[in-house]
Design goal:
Elements: E1 2-5, E2 8-12, E3 19-24, E4 29-32, H1 38-49, E5 56-59, H2 65-68, E6 78-79, H3 83-98, H4 104-107, E7 114-115, E8 119-121, E9 126-130, E10 142-145, E11 150-158, H5 173-182, E12 187-192, H6 198-219, H7 225-231, H8 236-244
Parallel strand pairs: 4-5, 6-7, 11-12
Antiparallel strand pairs: 1-2, 2-3, 3-4, 8-9, 9-10, 10-11
Helix pairs in contact: 5-6
The structure holds zinc ion.
């Protein structure tokens, strides 16, 4: 556990370089994400209880297993609209995909989130919850702690590895990052990796914009895949994931019908 600002803690993990968050007020605390499986969630809950006995409110930044499958250890949680549906639709597939690496994923009880309030009063400290528009998923939730200018960005921001585009909305993603920056944070906590400063988020916004431009040029047939890979700020796999999430335009039919 690392205290990154007054009463704002993160827990860093070797597994997936995951970063979970805790914000402590005078009368309550807010837990950001629940981890990989029930045992992971329980260890996380125990670590929280070594810091505070205050009642918790639990929020999920999004419905990916590494952020959401530990919720049973906490009882319940809140998330953005769309997270519940995403979990219902994808939990089974996520479990199948990841249980070889993390066996607990297969047996993690599915706890569905309730719609998140706009703010949570922790006693002497208000925390703001918002959905900045589609990005890493269609339902990312951002947690803002205005009194210390800290923002928990979930996987909208990723440090130490390229952003994950598998369920993303690449074209909208830079705008979601713009909204995070508009809040004027001093420190941004990513879903994976170490906390970063706003200039890192700005750089990631530029890189994602570059990826979108490359995907659009590819889809228009202006460049080929190898040309795009050579210009890409991220590895081939990341570019291909982003490409799969952008609309492939049909080539225009020529007037002579060919
Ligand atoms: Zn994710």
């Amino acid at each position: 556990m690392i205290e990154v600002a007054d009463g704002v803690w993160i827990r860093r993990h070797a597994e997936l370089d995951l970063t979970l968050g805790l914000i402590v007020g005078d009368t309550g605390c807010l837990v950001v994400d629940t981890g990989i499986d029930e045992a992971f969630g329980q260890a996380w809950a125990n670590a929280i209880r070594e810091i505070t006995d205050l009642p918790w409110t639990v929020v999920l930044t999004h419905g990916h297993f590494d952020h959401a499958f530990g919720t049973a250890a906490f009882g319940g949680c809140f998330a953005s609209e769309g997270c519940r549906e995403a979990l219902v639709e994808t939990a089974h597939q996520q479990a199948a995909e990841w249980s070889a690496q993390f066996p607990g994923v297969a047996t993690a009880p599915l706890v569905l989130p309730l719609p998140a309030p706009f703010s949570v009063d922790l006693g002497g400290r208000e925390v703001l919850l918002s959905h900045p528009g589609p990005g890493h998923t269609g339902h990312d939730l951002v947690v803002q702690v205005p009194d210390v200018k800290v923002v928990f960005a979930g996987d909208l921001v990723e440090q130490g590895a390229p952003p994950q585009f598998g369920d993303s909305y690449p074209v909208a993603w830079p705008m979601a990052l713009e909204k995070i920056l508009d809040a004027g944070p001093g420190l941004v906590v990513p879903g994976h990796g170490d906390p970063v400063t706003p200039d890192f988020v700005e750089r990631q916004r530029t890189e994602i914009t570059e990826i979108v431009t490359l995907c659009e040029r590819l889809n228009r047939g202006e460049i080929d895949l190898e040309g795009a890979v050579s210009r890409s700020p991220y590895p081939r796999k990341t570019l291909e994931e982003a490409l799969a999430r952008t609309i492939r335009r049909r080539p225009l039919r020529r007037p002579d019908g060919r």
